[in-house]
Fold each of these.
Amino acid sequence: MPKTLDIIIPIYNEEKTVKDLLEIIRAIDFCGLEKNIILVNDASDDNTLQIIKQFNECKIINHKKNQGKGAAISTGIKNSNSDIIIIQDADLEYNPEDYLKLLPLIISGEADVVYGSRLKDKKQRKSFLLTSYFANKFLTLLTNLLFKTNITDMETCYKAFRRTAIFDIEIKAKKFDFEPEITAKIAKKKLRLKEVAISYKGRKYHEGKKVKPKDALIAIFTLFYYRFFD
């Protein structure tokens, strides 16, 4: 029975949101699991580091230079020791209360991996930029075709893992290509993957959204690479 939870948060220049996020996480009981918060500061050059230092219960790992989200997640996983791992962005696009939908499927033994889908509920469409919505739909469809999966939101941040299921997966991604890479490797390993619907409040670019249209092209390349060449 899982007893511990590592919450891995890659952070780059999120001084406007990270304090509120950590206070929310601090206040929630996640299914009785002992929670550990691993903050990977990816060489932020704003006040992010000064803010997160106020949270003494968190483990803080600093990258000396900016490497990207995938590299930060990889660092977090390498420093993880808990039974369950969940990925959390440092912005407030996702609500940590939704962990309570993902975690029971792993705790009960029904799944090795659980994705929080922003696209399972059609009402969430209004939460996306139009280009982001169609890019996510296309990339998810491509994933399903290439890897014979049946998911609705490959690019979601909310991915929860049983640590023993992924500890031996090598992550090569440095940036946003983490999402297609980990999904491809989960599919090829034939892990039990399930989805639950979650809430979502997407940011606009002027509010700090970092994913760019070119990242969709990189995701396409990544999916084909891990399907046919890796």
Amino acid sequence: MRSKFMSFIKLIAHILFIIFLTVLTQVGGIIWLLTIIISKNKDWKKRHVFPIVYLIFNLLLIPPIAKQFGRERLPWFHNDLVPRNWFYPLTFRNYVNPELKQMLIESIKNCEFKITYLDACFPFYNGFPLLPHLSHNDGKKVDLSFMYLNKDGKPTEQKPSNSGYGAFIKDANMPCTDNGHWQYDFPKYLSFGMNTELQLDKKRTRALLKALLSKSETQSIFIEPYLKRDLKLQNEYRIRFQGCHSVRHDDHIHLQIK
């Protein structure tokens, strides 16, 4: 009886882990199932098999398959287009359609600094949610970091939070939170460490936004209305307020193309 109970608990644990990996990475659940099969047939330990299979999928198998679905991987290592940290490419959250990838690479030519990306989209299927985002599900969206100055007022490639999210430019409640939209400033719990000495580099952030706006593919950019005013972009209709149903956008730029 005890043996059957333990087998049942292990089954539930596997199911929960598969769900977790699927929500986090889209394809991680399939990789774990394959790990179970390989480990059982070869009598190898899953904790040894899983990272090897995972990296093979991440680096070698998924990118060419994703191309068949109209998605391409944003680079891990590039001189001017980089992820905030390893988490985004390692969890398959750095896929976009070819038009958006090419647009980002071309936008770099108008800037003299690196563009740092955060969450983009998963490699497969329109409509598959990339949580906690509401709309990163079609290969046409990507989040980008603002540009910052260090404590001496000099340009730096550093970012104020380890995740890229949650470091709000304006340290105050916003109208949406004041009106009861509790999720609006939820990203403050997702920063995973902060560097409070950095401040917004308005000149370079404005240059980045102008570079993105110069592209005809750009459909809309979400930042907070007060930042739109501060950066003197009031007349640009493609820079919009995302609404209170979403989260604050004074910690990152949300870019989407047509």
Amino acid sequence: MQENALHGWKMDTKPGSETRHMRMTGYPAKIKSISWSAKGKWLASSGAPAAIVWPFQAKDGPMGKAPLELGTRANIMVTQVACHPTDEIAAIGYADGMILAVRFADAKEVLLRRPGKGAITAMAWNRNGKQLAFGSEAGDCGVVDITA
């Protein structure tokens, strides 16, 4: 989008009925990263000083519902999000290079990486969710192993 918002349209409507336009607004910056939770109940997004996580459990998606705001940090912007492949957890990468893992149910946070030299620009979980690969705009990269 050219604006600081997400838009979605419900396409599986019956013939003759209107499609529903879902507007998810209020972001202070452009959304550059989105990630669906394992069962498609949540959509995590960047573009704010917290990961904005929209609920998609109901048939109308996020319409009329407030999002979760996870991993809020004063005025450090979230640059990347990556939902865990099996659990309702998101890895959140920030403009200062820090990475947190945050649980949707209670917003409990775990520090995965201290601030680095540049913004987190890429993150991906391995298939079983035991490792998180990341990269930053400064060229830093690595794998966080959470098996211990």
Amino acid sequence: MSSWVMILLGFGVGTFGTLIGAGGGFILVPILLLLYPERSPELITSISLSVVCLNAVSGSVAYGFKKRIDYKSAFIFCATTIPGAVLGAYATAYIPRDIFNIVFGLLLLSLSSWLLYRPVRKRAAHEHTHKCYLWPITRTMTDNEGNTGTYTYDIVTAVSLSFFVGIASSMLGIGGGIIHVPAMVNLLDFPIHFATATSHFVLAFMGIAGTLIHLMNGTLKEGLTEVLFLGIGVIAGAQLGARLSHLIKGTVIIRSLAIALMIVSLRILFTSVF
């Protein structure tokens, strides 16, 4: 693949990934799997995770200026996401390519089905009062555009979810936002715009942790060229995605994403089985 094609691919991944707070690894990994069938899962995930990391850092800067990042909640999530990311990065070395493809394809298919039939939805302001929290925390956020949100969630649920996201995202190279954002909205009651920005910030730290592991164990050595050109694209794309985030309805984005994920997952499963 030429350098310009990789830059353009990175730009598209960065724009859409930042727009929904998912990092873009869920798009990049299937493409890399199809383009480089001879490469190991460990190398594919290390390339994707490194690019997702660059995307998340760039997007977080843009979201930070918009005051959409819930920093207090983000650091709570990071407490378990980072250890999960380290564990997931080590685990990739022990997964055969065929098994990796099947697991990844089934994960994408499950996610697409869930997102298609249960997209982001708004909750009533009083709804959280009917829940039983072990360790509740309430946050109120207002961004630069005047959007305000007050939400309550359980810290125990949040850190448990983040640990799983860290393992899955680092192991599969998908970044984790594709799991984290819908869960933050539907399980933790985050408003969609604050969920995408906060998830992106958490993703930056998780990506750094996972990428450092891949660098230290030498996994990423053969993929540095791809990371360089894809990274140029995602850094620029992330800035555009953050600017577009308030123009498109969350349900439209999520449903479009679900259809794309379903097509990609079926393609990966078909090529792996047959």
